[in-house]
Amino acid sequence: MTRPIPEQIVAAVSASAESLATWCEEGRDGRLEQHEAAVLERVRQVLPRLLEAVVAVATSELAPRVRGQRSACPGCGRKVRPHQERARQVLTQCGAVVIERPWYTCGHCHHGWSVVETTLGVGSRQRASVGLLAWLARLGATTDYREAAELLDELTGLAVGPETIRRECLRVGTAIRVAEAATIRQTQRTREAAERLDPAPGLLVLEADGANILFTDGWHEVKIGMVAGWDGDRLVDPSYVAAREPAAAFGPRFATEAARRGALEIERWEGGITRRGLAMLRPALILADGAVWIWNLADAYVDQRIEVSDFYHAAEHLAAVATACFPDPTAATAWLDARKGELLTLGPLPVLAAFDRLTPPSPKAAETRRVERAYFASRVDRMDYPSLRLDGLPIGSGAIESAADHVVQRRMKRSGMRWSDAGGDAMLALRARLRSRRPLAA
Fold this sequence. Notes:
Elements: H1 7-26, H2 32-58, E1 71-72, E2 79-80, E3 84-92, E4 95-105, E5 112-113, H3 115-118, H4 130-142, H5 145-156, H6 162-190, E6 203-215, E7 218-230, E8 235-243, H7 247-260, E9 266-270, E10 278-281, E11 284-288, H8 292-301, E12 305-309, H9 311-325, H10 329-345, H11 348-357, H12 363-377, H13 385-390, H14 398-412, H15 421-435
Parallel strand pairs: 6-11, 11-12
Antiparallel strand pairs: 1-2, 3-4, 4-5, 6-7, 7-8, 9-10
Helix pairs in contact: 1-2, 4-5, 4-6, 4-15, 5-6, 6-7, 6-15, 7-8, 9-10, 9-12, 10-11, 11-12, 14-15
């Protein structure tokens, strides 16, 4: 290697090497875990010094020959000489580093600055690096704040309090919501994706559901939307949105995510209404349970669609009829199995006919039959399971029910948890981004 190694880096590495050499004598014939712990401890000790050395060598304005030169004021552009040296401590992924830097104050606009704020991009009141803040948001979005702090300390040796992690999650989640609001407005205005497209592969599949979360003023439904691709056998590459808001507000949010995943892509042109014809957007399959608000969203935002009512929810409705109309459990099971088989292989019409043949044993059972028959009669077009299965399309909404668990409830529905409006909304934004494998930064 012909390039000279800066002496600051050599000094930091040499100190680490000496410490490791000392351990080789102290820990001779020790167990692997003892050597492992010793090396981690000593490497962690030297990491801040290494980062300080790299910053000093790699930052032009910290070079000794230019430290006293004039620098342009970021506020007004006037050239100013530094009037003192100041130390700035920043907690980083490598540990706490101290940066000695020239400090400038503009006599004209009274703006104060240093290379830490300008070149290194660390805000004047920022105590942690961007990299460490990203860790805090990721950990806080994954588990409760106290456990997140414990994990950070155990895995990295960095001591950060739970409250610091909470504040960072609130800040990042709120920033995500602000960015999302702008994206939603643009998508609604232009009818085009406002963010860089990340098209879901295969057939576009949209699913939505809700989950109840405890806030400081009681239980509230959180709406969850999933956009994924269907490769002919399974759902792939899902992404999510989640928010505590009415369907009228959630609709544009869900539609904006669908647009990002390719829902507004033009698949082909048909007819002669305009010179090129009518734009036909990419079709989507809407798979949901019986919630009316979900189908209303589909009507409002998805033109080319296949609507599918979840088969497993339909089976639950059949089970309610079987239990009500057949006191004998064996007879109830036989009737239920027969109806599920008909629903899968023949569709809903034979099931409706089976309802009509029933003789309910009581007025209550008769009412159950009436209600459930109406459920199936209103969803005939969404229960063509034989054709859907032949076409290799999904008929179960288990993915979105699972999403209610792994996107929202695993983090937000733990014992004793109550969420403020702001904190809950920020966490929902973080969880949706995290489970979508998208960057947490807005």
